[in-house]
Fold this sequence. Notes:
single chain, Vcp-like ATPase, Chain A, domain 2
Amino acid sequence: MQVGGSVDREAKRGPRHPSGRHRAWDTDPTTTRQQTQHRRDAQTTPKPNTSPTRAGSLGCGGVDQTFSSNRHGLLRAGDRVQLTDAKGRHSTVILKPDGVFHSHRGSFRHDQLIGQPEGTVVTTSGGTGYVVLRPLLADFVLSMPRGATVVYPKDAGQIVQMADIYPGARVIEAGTGSGALSISLLRAVGDQGKLVSVERREDFAVIAQANVVSWFGGPHPAWEPTVGELADVVQSHPDGSFDRMVLDMLAPWDNVTAAAAALTPGGVLMAYVATTTQMSRLVETIRADGGFTEPEAWESIVRGWHVEGLAVRPEHRMVGHTGFLVRGRRLAPGVQAPPRRRRPAPGGYDADGLDWSPEAFGSQPVSDRKLRRVRRGLEAAE
């Protein structure tokens, strides 16, 4: 998928030193003054970037870049923009030369927006005004093509923050779905980090890859999407290869052992589950494993407020329960966490014989017809 305005950013930014932007050179007391001055000159002299770039197993390789130029500047052909009318209703448009936006309230030509700054107001032939802005990531996630249900922005933000996803982190996620959480994780790890996304279903992985490329305007250099089982992917890496693991799957407790092998000591295991029974079983499995700190579990509920003059009240609608988050940290190998001191409630562990199938949770399967429709839409947009 080609996005307009995708100029050669590496050439625009200029070359850089092959070892990075900032390099602390080793000092040698026997170095002569000329050698020291030569090192200082080499530190400040730009050199071509010869470091290799990674490529995902689905062919998602690319140049090392931040994609920040796609997020600011004048509107360009190929940019995705969000139109907001006076009632707060949104429409998403990809700008094209000679393109036309049509609605029941009139039309306007895309050329009226190309070359204009964000925040422009465009008026249709019917007299309706729209505020034109590039969509935020939260807007894109809720409107992008999807096969599997996405992780909502309120949960994705907590995952990034509470799992401490930092620039340069080595992260592995299981349950890529439609790629919503992958985008947030990629923005957090940056170009120098690493995100291995594992998805069992190839049709979901294809949709996720298209959404990630659509958002960033090209393949992200830190992304390695993979189709397969998490346990198999973990076994292909040495123990302790990852700093963070994020699980979004039906039965995450089946991969606690794999998480213990994959995470470095001090690493964070974060899981997103939909029901209380899933949350309970995962927490108990992490406790029983003994290789993690005492797990924490919580949910977040977001309620908007109506503020207009003296009419200040909660909104009638809110984003209530979407899922639970469970977090634990990897202990050093061979170390056992101190035993818990609080006493459980009587009968609190009588949970044997439960059915952990998707149907038992009321989960509706995604039909093949819907997936084919979503994929046709993505192919038509390319």
